[in-house]
Amino acid sequence: KESAATIVEMLKDVTSYEGEDAVFECRLSQETTQDAQWFLGDVPLQSNEMNEIRVQGAHHTLILRKVTLEDCGPISFKVGQHTSAA
């Protein structure tokens, strides 16, 4: 049975100007098949033309493209029982 991954590098707060990209990065203790999910407020984010979600091994990255004032708010990353927010 796979042991649960923990978050070893937490999210950092990011300040962006309108029209810029905002990049959030998180590192887990191990590569995992567990569901990892990004949220803006309570809304789960998917990879699309506005958001890019990347996973490289245990390194998870969220890129919010050309942010607007509507994108302002708490970003969180959840895997298993663990959460990090910025």
From TrEMBL:
GO terms for cellular component: cytoplasm. The keyword Repeat does not apply. Residues 7-79 form the Immunoglobulin I-set domain. It is found in: Cytoplasm. SUPFAM superfamilies: Immunoglobulin (SSF48726). Pfam families: I-set. Keywords: Cytoplasm, Disulfide bond, Phosphoprotein. PANTHER family: OBSCURIN, SI:DKEY-31G6.6. This is OBSCN protein. The lineage of its organism: Eukaryota, Metazoa, Chordata, Craniata, Vertebrata.
